[in-house]
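Lecture notes, unit on protein representations.

Consider one protein chain, 252 amino acids long.
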Amino acid sequence: MEPFVKSEIKNGIGTITFFHPQSNSMPGTQLRNLAAEIEKLGKDNAAKVIVLKSEGDKAFCAGASFDELIAIKDIGTGLKFFSGFAAVINAMRKAPKFVIARVQGKAVGGGVGIASSADYTFATDAASIKLSELAVGIGPFVVGPAVERKVGNSAFCHLTINATEWQTAQWAKEKGLYAELFSSAEEMDKGIETLAGKLATSNPEAMAMLKKVMWKGTENWDELLIERAGMSGTLVLSEFTVNAINKFKQKT
């Protein structure tokens, strides 16, 4: 299957689905398409709530595409790539509707950032998480504000420093990343259907106002996340990082 990002609206529920054959990793084009779909549904009055999901069973999102990271040869290209994650997070933040994330499998790096940027995140017991950026010579600079906002500074530091170790879905729920945890994707989907159905019949104006209240204090993220993207874009050019990414890629 080829990579895709697609959306549909049914009974007031806007569903965005993304897929990439490499464990739902995210090349720059995929990130820009995902941000565009979120913005599109945010403006569409037919969608009262947004559900964000990925295809497949094992991985929700493996984060940045290693192939694209290795291909970055200048600061401008690096900034553009990491700005893609910034665009997705800001689109989720600014959408005047609640965003529900469906995390059916492992989330790594940028995938943790996407899960953290949702307003309400459902997950299965298989949805372990890892911020692996430091292990490949960079850092979770762009996703950091979203992750820290959701789980707190202590848990964010834990994930960032212990970059090679997986944390369980139960750990993520205890830290506040996941709102609800299920033993199977089928059970999770029933829970999502129930909540999304309730929100689809709730007052859109009230939800939009609540969304602004809930994200208070993030008004500077348009500038902050681009600044953070520049940090990652610079580091990815270093010899240390290039070697680390190549070694990491050989293991996968």
